From TrEMBL:
This is Folate receptor-like domain-containing protein. Transmembrane segments: none annotated. GO terms for molecular function: riboflavin binding; riboflavin transmembrane transporter activity; signaling receptor activity. Coiled coil: none annotated. GO terms for cellular component: external side of plasma membrane. Residues 1-17 form the signal peptide. It comes from Accipiter nisus (Eurasian sparrowhawk).
């Protein structure tokens, strides 16, 4: 019995350790640590994979670009969509839990992050008047030699992509979420 408990403890400890690493993106720390003076993404200030300096880029409006990624390739985001996009950017750059859903082929990316339906619906509501040119952040951008992103495809309003029936509409919202979360779909 004791042996069982010790083994179980070891399993729990090792899986807990793993969970607290960071992704390997260009702005990520090796390990999360406290960042008491964050300008944005304060949800993660107790344990953060991004530095305070990174969050300065998000602490105003409009946000034109974050490092080399431009947010306005299909026009400036609406305020509601920009606010949502900031939440996602904070999760990707700063969350100590993001590495749970690390992409098997790209240690700087995440995939298949579980989402609440309500979060998904709110996100769609926030961005429905904005336009997009990518479904998949990893494969649908064209990156130039200075590392900046450009549209390969035409910009389409979210509302035009949406299909009338509920199920398809939800699927569309999910694809849009996947696009923001750098997920391979
Ligand atoms: C990203 O942007 C921040 C703020 O401008 C800068 O301090 C940092 O060096 C940049 N990181 C990379 C990898 O470009
Ligand atoms: C990872 O790469 C392999 C080999 O190229 C491919 O078969 C697989 O579908 C990729 N996985 C994902 C999640 O993209």
């Amino acid at each position: 019995m004791l042996r069982f408990v010790v083994t179980l403890f070891a399993v729990i400890t090792s899986s807990t350790c793993q969970k607290y690493g960071c992704l390997e993106g260009d702005t990520h720390k090796l390990k999360p640590s406290r960042e008491p003076n964050m300008h944005e993404c304060t949800l993660y200030s107790k344990s953060s994979c991004c530095y305070v300096d990174f969050t300065e880029q998000l602490a105003h409006s409009p946000v034109i670009k974050v490092n080399n990624s431009y947010w306005n390739r299909c026009g400036q985001l609406s305020k509601s969509c920009e606010d949502f996009t900031k939440k996602i950017e904070c999760f990707y750059r700063c969350s100590p839990h993001a590495a749970h859903w690390i992409h098997p082929n790209d240690t700087a990316a995440i995939r298949s992050v579980p989402l609440c339906q309500s979060f998904c619906d709110d996100w769609y509501e926030a961005c429905k008047d904005d336009s997009i040119c990518v479904h998949n952040w990893l494969t649908d951008w064209e990156w130039d030699e200075s590392g900046e992103n450009h549209c390969k495809n035409k910009c389409i309003p979210y509302s035009e992509v949406r299909k009338p029936d509920q199920l398809k509409q939800k699927k569309m919202a999910l694809r849009v979420l996947f696009f923001f979360l750098n997920i391979w779909v």
